Amino acid sequence: MARATYDASGVKVKGQSANLRNKFWKDIHGRKWWSTVHSKDESQSPACPPQPMEWSAPIIPDAKYLTPSQNPEEQNVLVIQYDQWHQDLTTGHEDWKKRADLYALGLAAGDEVLRQKLMIEPSFAMLQMLGAKPDDPRYVAACQAGDPWALGLSPIKPAWAMRIWPTLNPGTRAVSTVDLSFMDDEPEPEPEPAAAFPSPTLKAPIYSSRQPKEK
After folding, report:
1. Burial code of 80-104, b = ≥16 C-beta within 10 A, e = fewer?
2. What's the pLDDT tens digit per position in 155-185?
3. How many Å apart are CA 165 and CA 122, to the nearest integer?
4. What is the C-alpha to C-alpha distance for residues 71 and 74, in angstroms, rounded to an integer?
5. Cα angle: 46, vertex 51, 57; to 5 degrees
6. For residues 179, 185, 187 and 192, what is the CA-based torsion angle, rounded to 10 degrees?
7. CA-to-CA distance for 53 and 63, rounded, in angstroms?
C-alpha cells in the first residue's frame, strides 16, 4: 500500500494518482477500451496502456499502436496504427529469418542438408539465441480487414488461422461483410517450430477483474 505524504504543516500531499481519472474509448471496430488519463492533460492521451474492456482477442496490439483520434468529430476513439504494426512485424520476421539462416549456417559447418533441416526445425540452441518469433503479420492484416475471429468478436476460426496454427480445432469462417478472400490466397507458410510461435492454444491475455465500470 502506498504511504501517504504530508507537508511541513501536516497537510496531506496528494500523489500523482489524484490527477488521474478513468477514460473509456472505442476503436473503429466498436470494441471498448479503458485507460487512465491525466485530468490536466489537454490532449487526454492515455496515461497507461489502454486495456480491452469486456472483450478479448488472440493478440492485443501493443500500446504504441493505439493513439487517440485527432478528428474532432471522433470523441473518445482509439485509432489502431495497423500499417505500422504490420510493417514492424514484417521487418521482425525478416530479421528473425536472416539470423536463423546465419545460425543454421554456422551450426551446419558446411553441411547443406543439415542447414536446410535446421531452418525447418531449429535446434534448441538456435531457439535460445533467436528468441521467440514475432507474431505473424497476416493476423494484423486480418484485423484490419475486419475478420471477426481475429478481432475477438467470434469464436469461429477461419481457414487462414488453421494454416498458421494447425493445432487449432477446425472451424468455419464467420459470416462477414468484408472481403477476406486475400487471406485464403496467401502462400502456405513455412513449417514453424512449436517453440518459435506463441502457444498454439492462443489463450487471450487475462486482465484484472477489477476494471472500472463505465458510467
Report:
1. bebeebbebbeeeeeebeeebeebb
2. 888 888 888 777 654 444 444 444 555 555 5
3. 18
4. 5
5. 140
6. 50
7. 15
